Amino acid sequence: MQKKIIALAVASLASGAALAQTNVTIYGIADAGYVYSSGGSNNILNTNNGNKTFSGVQSGILGGSRIGFRGTEALGNGLSAIFTLEYSLTIDDNTGVGTSNGNGGLNARQQFVGLQSDKLGTVALGRQYAPGYVATVNNDVLAGSILGSQSILSSQAGNTITPNSAARWDNAATYTSPNWSGFTAKAIYAFGESETLAKDGKDSNANLRVYDSNLSSTDNGRFGLGGNYSNGALNIDLVYQQRYSVVPTADSAMAVPNLWGNDINEGYIGASYDFKAAKVSASYQQQNDKNVANNDNTVWSLGVKVPVMAASNVLLTYGQLEMDAGPRGSRVDGKSNTATLAWTTAMSKRTTLYAGYVWVDNDKMSLPIRFSGVPAGVGQVNETNNTFAAGVNHTF
């Protein structure tokens, strides 16, 4: 009898230790494909050298290649400790955003630790998604893929409401609410923590750049607030994001310091609805740059996803970027239009084959927008850019 009691006690202790351990999940995406892209030379400058083309293998076309580690530990009374460590991979050549960021470390998509309460919500610290990231993924039938119109236009216009790297903020504190009958809210503040240029940007001899010493000032800080309503087939997102007192830093390439120091504000509304026979999505966003650079722009996009056959989909997106930027004499106030026609086929729950055609048309006063996976020279103002891509996406 005594042996049985001892055995039960040991089993109970072992069970308690197991429950206290962190539950860690390893996950990721391996995605690569072939890309062929062609764009005309800039004929405004009479550099008529024929089309510029790109042909090669690219990583992360349908979805960004990555590896991640996610864990939770129950602390009792509905409270848990959580963490996420997620890193970009370029599986085609291991450069750029691959396993090294050039400083001997991994390039993080996300890395944060926090506390999660069933009733009170989640607080986290680290490099995290701003609300605009998830919103743009929610309301894009291509789920933020670089094939999609909204992704192409928002990233190259310099917006932080985008499904791309600009929506991942360092030094950030976030609060995410519980789900209240389909509604959730998220707030984020990212500290600047950078040595920013002094007001005049020069020493008394006007020779050297002079930097303020306060590394936790509001300069280059960021704030975001997002609300999401999701109920069955309907999804709606509203987002506001702000970059405070944007000024050059010690490692910045901004050339003229006295043209900076003001805020950049962004707003977004997006929605999607799944009719079963087809899923539709739409979004509209604006950026207001109060600096002399005045990088104001408007982006809107539409999309439709139609299931065909057993496990395939036809996807179509269309979007437009309207620039209203730059000081007098060097204004960028033109339009860029882009459309995507894509096909996906699920070979299993984890493996998807895809192919797509992307068309971009820039007028003479717009930006040199192009397909995001190719070098800048392929896309030019006053020219079109045509891209074909096909590949395989595997999740794990």
Automatic annotation (TrEMBL):
Annotated localization: Cell outer membrane
Pfam families in UniProt: Porin_4
Keywords: Cell outer membrane, Ion transport, Membrane, Porin, Signal, Transmembrane, Transmembrane beta strand, Transport
Protein name (record): Porin
Residue stretches spanning the membrane: none
Signal peptide range in chain numbering: 1-20
Subunit structure: Homotrimer.
CDD domains hit by this protein: gram_neg_porins
Annotated membrane topology: Multi-pass membrane protein
Residue ranges annotated for the Porin domain, each copy included: 7-364
